[in-house]
Amino acid sequence: MAFSTNMSGVIKIYQRLLTKYPLITQATQAGTLMALGDQIAQNLIEQRQIKNLDFVRTAQFASIGFFIAGPVTRTWYGILDKYVGSKGGMVVLKKVSYDQLFFAPAFLAVLLSTIGILQGNDLEQLKVKLYNEYPDILKNNYKLWPMVQLFNFYFIPLQYQVLIVQSIALLWNTYISYRTSLGK
């Protein structure tokens, strides 16, 4: 009973923050979940010991989530809602199409470039990294995100869409963190 009461209090606080400060709330949740994704990659996939964890890398992922992923995703969903609509099967299909044909390829390029820059890659190294990683990551994007976005745009109110995407992205960010750290 106490857990349920505490959880309902947390949800109410989150909803108040989301209403009053939507951009900062969604940026914070994106930063937190991207950092968590990086830590999952380091701990569970790379199996690093605590003394070998790269906390700078985790902070970089948090920064990308806070300054890029959260604000950009929130803005994009608002644009889709304003110009495409918010309800109906055709609206959802259009939103998913725009999201996957325009937003996803551009956002992945920005994300991978930002990660490469934060890793200290020069322009030539960045080009090689993008050439080697981008096609495979984009292909894997299309295995996951269209179905997630169908669900998200159809069932989830606009103010919670970033939360849903960032929650699913916890696994995606783990994958991105791992992929972009190979051969670093």
**Terminal CA distance:** 48 Å
From the spread of the alpha carbons, the general shape counts as globular
Helix content: over 70%
Instruction: Give me the count of strands.
Output: 0
* Cα Rg: 17 Å
Overall structural class, as computed from helix and strand content, comes to mainly alpha
Describe, in plain words, how this protein is organized in 3D.
The structure is a single chain. Helix content is 86%, strand content 0%. The longest helix is centred in the last third of the chain and has 33 residues, at 123-155. α1 (2-20) packs across α2 and α2 packs across α3. The chain contains six helices and no strands. The model has no long low-confidence stretch (mean pLDDT 94). It is globular and about 45 Å long. By secondary structure, it is mostly helical.
Short description:
The protein is mainly α and 184 residues long. Helix content is 86%, strand content 0%.
Write the layout of secondary structure elements.
Blueprint (H helix, E strand, L loop, with lengths): L1 H19 L1 H24 L9 H29 L5 H30 L4 H33 L2 H24 L3
Helix pairs in contact: 1-2, 2-3, 2-6, 3-4, 3-6, 4-5, 5-6
Notable traits:
184 residues; mainly alpha; 0% strand; globular
